[in-house]
Amino acid sequence: MMAYVFIMIYHRFQVVWGLPTYRSRHPKTLEHIEHVAREDEPHEFSLIRQCQPLRTEHTTPEDAQKSTEKALASLSALGRPPRVAVVLGQKLRRYIPNFQSERMERFADLLHGTDVFVAVPDENADMVQYLPKSQVVGVSSWRVDVDSFDPAQRNDSALLHHFEGFFTQLLRTQDAFQMIEQHEKENGWEYDVVLRVRPEVIHTDICDLGLNQGCAAKGAWPLAVSASILAEEEPFMVEKHDVIYGGRRNVMKSAMDNVQAHLEQKLGIQIKRRLRCQSDSPKTCSQVVTVTAAENREMFNGTYGGGWQEAVLHVVNKDTGLRERTLWGMSIRRLGYDHYGSDKMGPGYPLGYQIGCEPYPPMKNSTHPPGAATRIQSNEVSETAAQIDKHMFAEYGFAPGP
After folding, report:
1. The pLDDT value given to residue 188
2. Domain ranges across the chain
3. Element (H, E) at 117
């Protein structure tokens, strides 16, 4: 009997060890699992109960409940909040506002509880100040050693267009991993989960349920995603197009290594990185990424079409047997989420055009840049916005979706 009592006490200790016990607000909606707030339950558990990151339209309430309990059990077994690294790796100019905005404040709330690693091209270094506070900022310079290529191959369109434009965004997760590994070595531990996220992303719960609700509650989404990932023994990658992808730390590292090897083989190149960091706060790093021609290189004649990044990931994951699971609710809200592209667009650009929330949650401060107009819904202005979009996306070879 004494042994039984000791085991129960020990299990209880594992659940609450190192976790705060204050309560959160819970959404009252059929879209989420009904649950009762428990005074003695860790706040992290309450957040997981209100966020279902891997649900689908076919998920039943019973399935959702089982998934939640499985995620809670994984967090309990871990005995601490999961260590989550979030990679923000892409071009920033024209994708986030070039001023301090509420949009980025809400994005910071979404990522609350994670360590952010920023990997951006050197020409976007001045935009990093408008992102959520990060652990390490890496400014990378990608250099193609033209002299290493045969003269007849120096105008290889697959290399110059796809590689320098498209594939570098995919490979910036690998850029960030160099910083992540250095940070882990300095601290003597490894992250549990690594997620690559676009800075324009929101969870649609902010549209459907309102501010600070469901997966849009402060810190709920990365916690629920990580607990769900850690709950499964079989490795897999969560993904939603090029919006977000992630998995266990070692799964993500292996996947990014495989992506780089795949692109090196397809494009006939070699990629090498050199990282130098300064002990600032946040730590700042300069990274030089050099691309050289592989021995006996042949020009790449294939194409990945419009879905460039997703296609590469799917091909590599299929070839290596890595299972994928789609994330629910994560979406791009460029034009309905504060002033996307305000550094390039003049007065009259319609806030909320295209795929913004309908209706959009009220903002505590409108953060209008000088001369900017308020939300406009006229067809004439929307047509103007569409033309601006077409111009903005021209360098990437595709038009934005409806």
Report:
1. 97
2. 2-78, 84-331, 333-402
3. strand 115-121
For residue 36, which phi and psi values (nearest 5 degrees)? -105, 125
Instruction: Find tokens 């003269």 and name the residue.
Output: 151
29 token code pair: 């909606």
Peptide bond between residue 282 and the one before it cis (omega within 30 degrees of 0): yes
β-bridge pairing 84-88 and 193-197:
parallel
Q: What is the DSSP letter of 358?
A: S
pLDDT at 17: 34
Question: Do residues 244 and 196 make contact, with C-beta atoms less than 8 angstroms apart?
Answer: yes
Q: In this structure, what token pair is assigned to residue 295? A: 């021995």
Q: What is the pLDDT of residue 3?
A: 42
Secondary-structure class of domain 84-331 per CATH: alpha beta
Residue 234 in contact with residue 66, Cβ under 8 Å? no
d(CA 218, CA 112): 6
Tokens, residue 128: 């990093």
Instruction: Give the span between the Cα atoms of 254 and 258, in whole angstroms.
Output: 6
Q: How far apart are CA 117 and CA 37, in angstroms?
A: 34
- Evaluate whether 130 touches 100 at the Cβ level (below 8 Å): yes
Q: What is the 3-state secondary structure (H, E, C) of 250-270?
A: HHHHHHHHHHHHHHHHHHCEE
How many residues appear in the chain? 402
* Sequence-separated (6 or more) residues with CB below 8 Å from residue 320: 254, 255, 258
In the chain, which residues have pLDDT < 50? Answer: 1-37, 334-356, 359-360, 363-379, 381-382, 385, 388-402
